Amino acid sequence: MVELIVKSTMHMSPINLIMPHYCCSCGEIGAIFCDNCKYNINKHIFNDCVLCNNDPVKMHVQCSPSWCVGRYDGPLKLALERYKFHHARDVAKPLAQLLSARCGQLPPDAIVTSVPTLPSHIRQRGFDHAERLAREFAKRQHLPYKKVFKRKAKTQQRGSSRRQREHNAVAAFEITKQKVEGRYILVDDIATTGATLRQLSGLLRDAGAAHVSCAVIAKQPLD
User: Fold this and answer.
1) % of residues, the chain, pLDDT over 90
2) Are strands 209-219 and 182-191 parallel, antiparallel or unpaired?
3) pTM of this structure
4) Which of 12, 130, 131, 181 is at 20 to 30 A from 145, Cα to Cα?
């Protein structure tokens, strides 16, 4: 037993030796996701569109291509809660690794951007969780990160109805005065109705982007 613990902590940083991570799936000491659990998450195919849930009423054929690691439950939910609500900034790295594996190799001319976080949430957490995740994802894909959007309203989606989310997404964001062209990958942590992703994808295309794709960690049902 002692030998097992020693082996599992050999490659941990000093801070993690004092406050070690535990696998969000199996509980093994040493990492947010152990290798075996990462493999189990990656082998599960998640095909639902994060913009419209493959709903023909939403005209799924017009949605941007999207990737999602899985549903917002179990180990993914636990990891995201640690990341966003318990100041575990380094959780961004394994989450970005899972997302990068789900996307495969992206075109080398793509630019990664992220959904802007409410300033009040940044102050609470001490960092912009969506931007940090997107930057780690960009590193994994060897792509540049570019901050494209800013918030123009303090609306938030959590706890809102589907109709409210659509309205909030239109009112909340605007694109910065930067040159926008080429291919963009829009990254966020959680998608619910897809209203924010649809709105920001549209803003990118209206500003001149030739192609927009969306990549998120988890899909959460509205209820």
Assistant:
1) 52
2) parallel
3) 0.83
4) 12
Average confidence (pLDDT) over 20-35: 88
Q: What is the pLDDT of residue 34?
A: 92
Q: Which of 14, 7, 204 has its CA nearest to residue 112?
A: 204
Looking at the domain assignment, is residue 12 inside a domain? no
Choice between 22 and 97, residue whose per-residue pLDDT is larger: 97
Determine contact, residues 179/38, Cβ cutoff 8 Å.
no
pLDDT per residue as tens digits for the range 110-161: 999 999 988 888 998 899 999 999 999 999 999 999 999 988 866 665 656 6
Q: What domain count does the chain have?
A: 1
CA angle 116, 110, 185 (to 5 degrees): 35
Task: Give the bridge partners for 110, in sequence order.
Answer: 183
Whether residue 67 lies inside any domain: the answer is yes
The verdict on residue 182 lying in a domain is: yes
**Whole-angstrom distance, CA of residue 212 vs CA of residue 118:** 23
Sign of CA dihedral 75, 79, 131, 58: positive
Closest C-alpha to 116, from 126, 129, 125: 129
- Token reading at 220: 């959460």
